[in-house]
Design brief:
The protein is mainly α and 299 residues long. It has two domains: 34-115; 171-299, no CATH class. Helix content is 57%, strand content 2%. Pfam families: DUF6594.
């Protein structure tokens, strides 16, 4: 579907790939190198354990020494800093080395913590990246190093690195909206609707914005959210049998919990709270309805 190349001024390879990531941030996918990062932390940790042991031994020896000011190193930083006057800077050297190693270790630890929170790339964006790497604008052999297979390829979709993360993930939509967006855009292309659109000046390809389809799903879920409570009240009002009413309450509670799971990103606790509140409203309506009095109810 590519009609024009907005990156024609970039040479093929890393420059053009980087420019593509710039105009489409969702394709900013990189390896987290979890094993290497963990190995690096393990080496730092082992080095610090060794340095800590040496420092404790040196501190004990200096505190028992009668030479110069060594016994005061643990009491006053000034004397430790001026330990060159005593002709022995071993403890000071260990402290300074530990300080630098700790700084590197803490930075690596914090970075690893942040990296582990990055989500996996969206399958749609990963497929786009695989197709882009084999377009004529990118060239058939644009990337030919060992990193060329990190994202997989158009012929081997599943051969991408399993530790890929994305720096700019797509907003997490509810299951229903995600399914509609994927199916709707795919069917629009299959039906040939793309022939009526022009390529984007930014991306250089013909495409549909998922924001438009998400607006439609938003209206659908909003209407459904307002109709379910109204429908339950109307049905409960028309039914006079108590067993039937109890069954209707149970059925609508199951329906509302299913809708919350499919049409929203509600947590389990939120689904439980909303379902319980919805059930309470129905019970209150049934208990206050005149047709539900013991004299008129059919048990």
């Amino acid at each position: 579907m590519t009609s024009n190349d907005p990156l024609r001024d970039r040479i093929m390879g890393y420059p053009k790939l980087a420019a593509q990531i710039e105009i489409r941030p969702e394709t900013a996918m990189f390896r987290r190198f979890g094993a290497l990062n963990a190995e690096n932390l393990l080496y730092y940790q082992a080095e610090l354990v060794q340095l800590e042991k040496l420092l404790r031994e040196c501190q004990l020896a200096d505190s028992l020494s009668s030479k110069g000011r060594k016994s005061k190193y643990a009491l006053n930083w000034y004397w430790l800093r001026e330990s060159r006057a005593d002709g022995d800077t071993r403890q000071l050297d260990l402290v300074l080395r530990i300080r630098e190693t700790l700084r590197l270790y803490n930075e690596a630890l914090i970075q690893q913590c942040q990296i582990l929170t990055y989500p996996e790339p969206d399958q749609w964006d990963l497929t786009y990246m695989q197709n882009f790497l084999q377009t004529k604008e990118m060239g058939p052999f644009a990337l030919n190093g060992p990193d060329a297979t990190i994202w997989g390829s158009a012929t081997e979709r599943k051969k991408y690195s399993p530790d890929l993360v994305t720096l700019c993930p797509r907003p997490k939509e509810d299951p229903f909206s995600g399914w509609v967006v994927e199916k709707a855009i795919t069917n629009l292309f299959r039906c040939g609707c793309a022939r009526f659109k022009k390529p984007s000046r930014v991306h250089g390809v013909i495409g549909y914005e998922d924001a438009t389809i998400l607006k439609i799903t938003y209206w659908i879920t909003s209407i459904l959210a307002s109709l379910i409570p109204i429908a339950s009240i109307i049905i409960l009002y028309c039914v006079h049998s108590m067993p039937a009413r109890l069954g209707i309450i149970g059925g609508f509670n199951v329906l509302i919990s299913i809708c919350l799971s499919a049409f929203t990103n509600a947590k389990r606790s939120e689904v439980f709270a909303v379902t319980a509140a919805f059930a309470a409203v129905q019970v209150v309506f049934v208990s206050t309805d005149r047709d539900c009095s013991p004299r008129n109810a059919s048990v």
